[in-house]
Amino acid sequence: MATKKSSAAAKKPAATAKRAPARRKTPRKQKAQSAGLEPLGCALDAGDPAVQELEAVIAREGGLVVGRYKDPLGGFPMVFAVVPIDTIEPTPFQRDLSDTHHKRLAEVIQKTGRFLDPVITITAPPEQGGFWTPNGRHRLEAMRRLGAKAITVLVVPTREVAWQILALNTEKAHNLKERSLEVIRIYRGLLDEDDARAESGFAFYLEDPALVTLGVCYERSPRFAGGAYYPVLRRVQQFSDEPIREAIDVHEHLATLTLEVESNVAAAIAKLREKGLVSPYLRSFVVARINPLRWIQGELPPAEKVLTTMRDRAAKFNTEKVRQEDLARVSGGVPDEE
């Protein structure tokens, strides 16, 4: 059935890849002590224009400015403060809170009697007031669990840091579902904040265009098994030069196709299980068999074509030809239960 989103996707071939995605580059090791500022060069005087407005916000929220300085690497201004704990909220596009993780943190903090890991914060939108933390949700909740009145924070004057959550979050390793949901939440936040900017301009914050598509899938189907489809999507998607308010239509359309593929794959898996075939990698097995990219070298077809082919192949998947020894050869894939 034709939809507005599918027609929008058809008009935007730039959002699908013609080549494999570029690999993330690791910074070269620099000569020792060759970058940044000397300790004394990091000094920032009280009342400096770079942080004056920010310090006024901290005072207005009932906080105490402990110090201010220039970051020793990039020279960016920072403010160290103690603020009332009820003035801070996590950014609205973070992963869901883990009860186990924040309770474990609370136990550790209680044992030491000290909060030694300040959370990074920015000022929240004016209509909300207070502060947002892009990477301190579990520490914040741990301190609330302990009944703390205040919390130490590193306040960054630039709100753009809020979109860099994937790079900043070091509390707990992300799995694919968490990463994808954070990316799509960031994306929807960007639609409210700066929807005219090209999607490619947000590449650093979003990490991988495939994560945007998978994020939409997880929004619609929380039990979606994204690990089986991530290797395919990341090969055929790249960030678009279209405004994100238009590029999102492509991701929505590709997510629809991906979920249609999964529906047909799930049906094939059910038939394999009815035959008595057992393996933790049934989904990976079926997806590998229907994946048209296995034999393609050089230029890749558009993502829409790849997913449509996979959907149709999955619908026609012949389970009668599959034997248990075929499944035994599958290893290193993504288990059906991620």
From TrEMBL:
Name assigned to this protein: ParB/RepB/Spo0J family partition protein
Chain residue ranges for the region called Disordered: 1-41
SUPFAM superfamilies: ParB/Sulfiredoxin
Low complexity: compositionally biased ranges: 1-19
Biased composition (Basic residues): 20-31
